[in-house]
Amino acid sequence: MKLLIPIDGSDYSVNAAKVAGKMALEHNDDILLLHVVTDTGVGRKKWRNTGAESILSSVRDILINAGCDEKRIKCIVKDGNAPEIIVDIANQHDAYKIVMGTRGNTGLKKIMGSVTEKVLQTSNKLVLVVPPKYKN
User: Fold this and answer.
1) CATH code: domain of residue 85
2) SS3 of residue 11 by DSSP
3) How far apart are CA 34 and CA 45, in angstroms?
4) At what angle are helices 115-122 and 82-92 packed, to 10 degrees?
5) Is residue 34 part of a domain?
6) What domain range is 6 assigned to?
7) What are the pLDDT digits (tens) for 89-126?
8) Contact 119/86 with Cβ under 8 angstroms?
9) Dihedrals φ, ψ of 27, to 5°?
10) Three-class DSSP labels, 38-73
11) Count of structural domains, the chain
């Protein structure tokens, strides 16, 4: 079974990855780490992809140090609209669960919608949302 963990580089997504890593260890799951590079500006694409790979590598190292098997962790970088890509990758790789962090925004930011909210609305997969104050 596979867990998909979208990583945006925030502390919230790293915290969600730590939660998912514990779950993966308990259930012998494979881990898919995903970073979506927003499709804005072709000129910065190479730089952004390098940054994405660095972010995923650091989270991968955290998971390995926590006991996850490095052979069972796959890192994916995709360009596009984050909520759409997250749902597509979950379906393409047959992930049974998406584990995401949230910033817990309220007010105008909440009304505008978050990536997590959009994934919750469009995914047919189970989505575990790790709240911002959750401590591992």
Assistant:
1) 3.40.50.620
2) helix
3) 16
4) 40
5) yes
6) 2-130
7) 999 999 999 999 987 555 445 544 588 889 999 999 99
8) yes
9) -110, 5
10) CCCCHHHHHHHHHHHHHHHHHHHHHHHHCCCCHHHE
11) 1
- Of 58, 65, 6, the closest CA to residue 31 belongs to 6
Is 38 part of a structural domain of the chain? yes
Inside any domain, residue 45: yes
pTM for this prediction: 0.88
Among residues 87, 103, 85, the alpha carbon closest in space to that of 95 is found at 87
Q: Is residue 29 part of a domain?
A: yes
Tell me what the pLDDT averaged over the chain comes to.
87
CB-based burial of residue 74 (10 Å sphere; 0-12 exposed, 13-18 middle, 19+ buried)? middle
